[in-house]
Amino acid sequence: MLPTFTWIFSKWKTRVLVLEFAVLLFCILQNQEVKALPPVIRIGAIFTQDQKDSSMDFAFKYAVYRLNKDRTVLPNTTLVYDIQYVPRDDSFRTSKRVCRQLQNGVQALFGPSDALLGPHVQSICEALDVPHMESRLDLELNSKEFSVNLYPSQKLLNAAFKDVIRFLNWTKVAIVYEEDNGLFKLQELVKTPPTLKTEMYIRHANPSTYRNVLREIRQKEIFNLIIDTSTTHISQFFRAMLQLQMNDYRYHYLFTSFDIETFDLEDFKYNSVNMTAFRIVNLEDRKVVDLLEQMERFQTLGHNILNRSGIIQAEPALMYDSVHVLAAGLALLDKSSVIKTSNLSCDLEVPWRDGLSLYNYINTININGLTGRIEFKEGKRDNFKLDLLKLKREELRKVGHWTPAEGINITDRSAFYETSTNNVTLIVMTREEKPYVMVKNDANLTGNAMFEGFCIDLLKSIAAQVGFHFVLRLVPDHTYGVYDHETKEWNGIVKELMDKKADLAVASMTINYARESVIDFTKPFMNLGIGILFKVPTSQPTRLFSFMNPLAVEIWLYVLAAYLLVSFTLFVMARFSPYEWSNPHPCLAESPIVENQFSVSNSFWFITGTFLRQGSGLNPKATSTRIVGAIWWFFTLIIIASYTANLAAFLTVERMITPIENAEDLAGQTEISYGTLESGSTMTFFRDSMIDTYKKMWRYMENKKPSVFVSTYKEGIDRVLEGNYAFLMESTMLDYIVQRNCNLTQIGGLLDSKGYGIATPMGSPWRDKISLAILELQEKGEIQMMYDKWWKHNRGQDQESCNRNDKTNKESKANALDVDNIGGVFVVLLCGLAIAIMVAIFEFCYNSKKTMRSDCTSPNPQAQSLCVEMTDELCFALKCRGSRQKPALRRKCPNCNTRATHMNLGLDLAPPPRPNSATGRSQRESICDIPPPPAPLYRSVMQHYLNTGPDDFDLDTT
Hints:
InterPro entries: ANF_lig-bd_rcpt, Glu/Gly-bd, Iono_Glu_rcpt_met, Ionotropic_Glu_rcpt, Iontro_rcpt_C, Peripla_BP_I. Belongs to the glutamate-gated ion channel (TC 1.A.10.1) family. The record marks 687 as: Interaction with the cone snail toxin Con-ikot-ikot. L-glutamate binds at residues 510, 515, 681-682, 730. By secondary structure, the chain is of the alpha/beta class. It starts with a helix and ends in a 10-residue tail after the last helix. It has five domains: 40-152 and 284-383, Response regulator (Rossmann fold); 154-279 and 386-416, Rossmann fold; 425-528 and 756-792, Periplasmic binding protein-like II (D-Maltodextrin-Binding Protein, domain 2), CATH 3.40.190.10; 534-539 and 656-752, D-Maltodextrin-Binding Protein, domain 2 (3-Layer(aba) Sandwich); 546-582 and 598-652, Orthogonal Bundle (Helix Hairpins). The longest helix is centred in the C-terminal third of the chain and has 32 residues, at 819-850. The protein contains 30 helices and 33 strands. The strands form ten sheets. Strands 7-6-8-9-10-14-15-16 form an eight-stranded mixed sheet, covered by helices on one side. The chain has a five-stranded parallel sheet with strand order 2-1-3-4-5, with helices on both faces.
């Protein structure tokens, strides 16, 4: 015993143990029974030899020292510790040391932190009912008897890591672990990733292979890493990062260690590298800060509890709290029961009688320590809080916290994408699309100089206003991004942003719900909707007889049939009615001759004249025929009025053949195909729409073979120009195309309303800055000027523009009539004149033949030839200045008496031949039978005829 006391007294810091040991010896000599807690309680600790004089070793000693000094928790009891240092991985010697401590009356054991030695110590404590206070990572999920572990379980830690990954929306993650059990620690994270789309790349590394592993990760373009390495080798890992230049804002490192604050991060400050880790020490509690300051002041030469000024590692903090947990359990036991210490033997395996009571009281405590709130459930840490730290510019800051009950709670979202606006270069993803982004046809240009367009001008203005540089890159798969329900993955620009391969996306990218759920959008810089692009309807070919278009062919046929029917009806009824027969010679009242003016030709002439709104000189007399005429007049009134009204529309307004007018027309037919841009927001709109018309259109587009979807706008435009295809596209792009191709037009209105925005990764700090810049540019009118520059003016690669000013409101504006519209009327007129001339010639020839002149006074009268007769008649007709009177010619009437001769006065004195109902002969034949008038009467008539003239001569009156 003397050497032992000499060793104790040689350590000045353990002088307090002398007094405690004296009190214990005094109680034993007096053979006095101790009530409740004994005045001295021995506790043991097992540390590995490499932990001797470490921060964990001194944290344990300082905790015992502080409890014995303050006397607030255990006012009547002094703790005496027994520390044994054992070789690492030597379980046999460790077991021996533990048994020796128990024989010396140790009532609780602390440590070791080694993963192999800990279970051996735990089995001994469990056999002897001794509380085992641990502060190490235990990978076993099952609870252990008499084990009290302050270190959070790996299952809960994996849940915390999952929540962080889910919040950061990591889809491609590399896990780098160093220890052999590192993969076993993170197996829960690997087996069940945060999301189904998360891809894990796992690599084992040590200080000699850090560079090779990181180089592989960089080549695979993985920018999100989970680092599970030893804190003693972290400096070498940092060196490998710097050598491979993996320390910019694109990379994000999530460390599994709680000691990120103890790392030297000087080389990673001010370059926007993302470093994130959890912290278990509650530095927000003022009591904790004061305690750490006291620890710092308590340090002596070579005895460092804190890693550096104001910072304590997780393991020493957990060891310090475990000592206070045991003291709190003893304090609860002191209030309710009596505890008796005893010397235990590993050989006898007789358990400690009060061990179970002490263990149960420890499980019920609820105190605050260096690591926050301390509670237990079956010996495992429960209801704790982890602070989430993020390297933000020059220092580590708390940006959130995690609890098992609430999960992740981010208080500073912008910290995860913190970038410095000074000389920062952002990667901007885009897609080639006129006139938003176009590649110049110049092989000498490289970099950003290769691109031009509306989005490029907009990006330059925003970059100058916000303060950053940018590098443009085209998206590899040439798509904007759509979610595939089968593969559960995004593609296009959205995927690039989700994988953090780009900082911004500037293109004609539509803001919708699906994209907004995985990435962020700025304020829209352009509003638009979905329109229908279609080939310009062909104008109806102008026909010569287009004046007949106002009435359908069927109506013209019905009018013709009505014309014939009414004409024959009038003829029959006129002959049937007695009131249509009249005496042609009113002076001869007893004349047996009556006539009817409605012959077949006159009936048709009357109907024709009234149909054309002209007089015919014939008037019906009978009531029945007048009814027929009135009804026909009413019919012609409606037909002519309708024709005239519709003729103005057909001849003054250009008629277009438009097979479709809107989306409903498209959905209701199958002759014209229609489709959208593949993997675009327009396709997503129809796929997710709940409107019946759009759902029907989506079913058609989805099932149509060959596919109606196109990969580029150019392909869709070409299909529209080929005919029988309608392209559903966004209105802004549609306006640009229509402005430059007169063969294309927009059909109907917009199907929806949405906007274009600049896309950023989730939680990016650039979103708000760019949104403010967009609002300012809109208020100044600069965005409108950019729009006019690329849409209305001839800029960029497309120098041809279609001038549509003269075609505006074409269907509502009357045009002047030309020959193509009403030329048929002139044709009808010319044809009618030609027919009339041919009929006149026929009549002339026929009459000349009938009235050939003969010389009746000659001894041998002979008929004049037809040619001579026609020549004489033609010569007289062609005398333009000749008399209106035709000279009297001597005629020979073959049907009259050779003695009956008369002068042809230019007017036939006899009435026209009319049929006689009584005799069946013509009136001329009857007159020929009348003897010639006496000579005085004949001379009187001739004299009157010559005085009045042929126009005013009335034979009946004379």
